[in-house]
Specification:
The protein is mostly helical. It has 7 helices and no strands.
Length: about 180
């Protein structure tokens, strides 16, 4: 579980670094981007290895049988929110943090269907990070104005792309872990 916790903390720390120490981050220039990318990849590796290796001894809750379907719907919405649709489309154009809200929705949906301790650490930690990131950004940047609204056609295009991407992600998920679509 140590690797899992370290991975979640490294993920959050790398993301918060820009807000916590803006002068230091700015002085790093483009090299800082590379370092942050390496830290984020390392955090993902730690989270994956830590999650796969963590013992599932304590089941804190068991999701109802229909939870997988709601999880999959929430993940589809999360993928859509993390796409360019909210900036280029019309439906969610007024949302300030669509990617972070999508990430929080993804984490919350996974937390709901996985009631064991490693899942609480992974998905709960990432959910807390995403919500805290929204608060930190809002405080740092102040008022916000939405970009010019796009079209419903763009929303439709990105929704179809989100469905295809969810199928690909679901297939890969089934290769490395449980099949999210059943069967």
């Amino acid at each position: 579980m140590t690797l899992l916790v370290l991975g979640v903390l490294l993920w959050a720390g790398a993301h918060f670094f820009k807000r916590a120490m803006p002068d230091v981050r700015e002085s790093m220039g483009d090299k800082g981007r590379g370092l942050m990318a390496v830290l984020l990849v390392a955090s993902i590796v730690l989270m994956v290895i830590g999650y796969k290796a963590a013992p599932v001894e304590d089941v804190l809750w068991v999701a109802p049988s229909f939870a997988k379907h709601i999880n999959n719907l929430a993940v589809l919405v999360a993928i859509f929110l993390m796409s360019p649709a909210p900036r280029k489309g019309k439906l969610f154009n007024g949302m300030r943090h669509p990617m972070l809200i999508g990430f929080a929705l993804w984490a919350g949906a996974h937390l709901w269907v996985n009631g064991d301790m490693p899942s609480l650490i992974l998905f709960g930690g990432l959910l807390v990070w995403a919500l805290a990131e929204i608060v930190v950004i809002n405080k740092a940047e102040g008022p916000w104005t939405p970009t010019e609204s796009g079209s419903i056609a763009k929303d439709g295009m990105f929704f179809v792309a989100s469905i295809i991407l969810m199928g690909v992600i679901g297939y890969i998920h089934g290769l490395v872990g449980p099949n999210p679509f059943g069967g």
